[in-house]
Write a sequence for this structure.
């Protein structure tokens, strides 16, 4: 089983739709969680961290469920510019360094 | 406003050749790392460094060497290129390796080994 699993998609949604992605992680010692966005042939960029109580940044909401070991990303009122691959990232602090594990990404295509 | 700079952006190598991917950051970050990204595999850590003079292996270190003589630079050396090393390589840096620190990536280096 992969340490971090995501549905690769693609998720094809019309502009204005709400879309949600889930990500599951296997290591219960995972301590912090992030969503990164990666545009085609570009580098990943931090979208948002995921906090235990859930957090929101504009149209984006991230949730963490430690009991079930998954995180989610909800995008409301999708825009064409949201089209990208969304990477789930899980961190374990080993004491000497952090071990970041990346999911393979979920591709989102927002259409007119 | 350079951030993390990687060169070259594209490279084609013949099997057995060696080369160095350059990475430099101007944010005075202690932590630097190299990842490779392959279809269906996600980003995988090759080597990382927590400061000048200190390097360590990541998940897929075989066939690669690194050094960290300065805080700014973290080159990745392919010793004898193999087709399995065809990939996109990203250099990254952060203030420290802790969970709260944003990781900044370079723009990537597309490497093809024929």
């Amino acid at each position: 089983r992969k340490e971090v699993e995501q549905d690769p998609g693609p998720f094809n949604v019309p502009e204005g739709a709400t879309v949600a992605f889930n990500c599951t992680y296997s290591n219960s010692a995972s301590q912090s969680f992030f969503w990164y966005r990666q545009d085609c042939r570009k580098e990943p960029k931090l979208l948002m961290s995921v906090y235990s109580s859930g957090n929101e940044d504009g149209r984006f909401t991230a949730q963490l469920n430690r009991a079930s070991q998954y995180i989610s990303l909800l995008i409301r009122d999708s825009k064409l510019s949201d089209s990208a691959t969304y990477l789930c990232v899980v961190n374990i602090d080993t004491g000497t360094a952090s071990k970041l594990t990346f999911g393979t990404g979920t591709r989102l295509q927002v259409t007119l | 406003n350079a951030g993390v700079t990687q060169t070259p952006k594209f490279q084609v190598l013949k099997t057995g050749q060696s080369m160095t991917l350059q990475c430099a950051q101007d944010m005075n970050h202690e932590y630097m790392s190299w990842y490779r990204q392959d279809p269906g595999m996600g980003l995988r850590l090759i080597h990382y460094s927590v400061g000048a003079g200190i390097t360590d292996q990541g998940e897929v270190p075989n066939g690669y060497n690194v050094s960290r003589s300065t805080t700014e630079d973290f080159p990745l050396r392919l010793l004898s290129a193999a087709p399995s090393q065809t990939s996109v390589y990203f250099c990254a840096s952060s203030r420290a390796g802790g969970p709260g620190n944003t990781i900044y990536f370079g723009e990537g280096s597309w490497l093809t080994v024929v």
Notes: The CA atoms of residues 5 and 47 of chain B lie 17 Å apart. The first strand of chain B starts at residue 4 and ends at 7. Chain B has a mean pLDDT of 93.
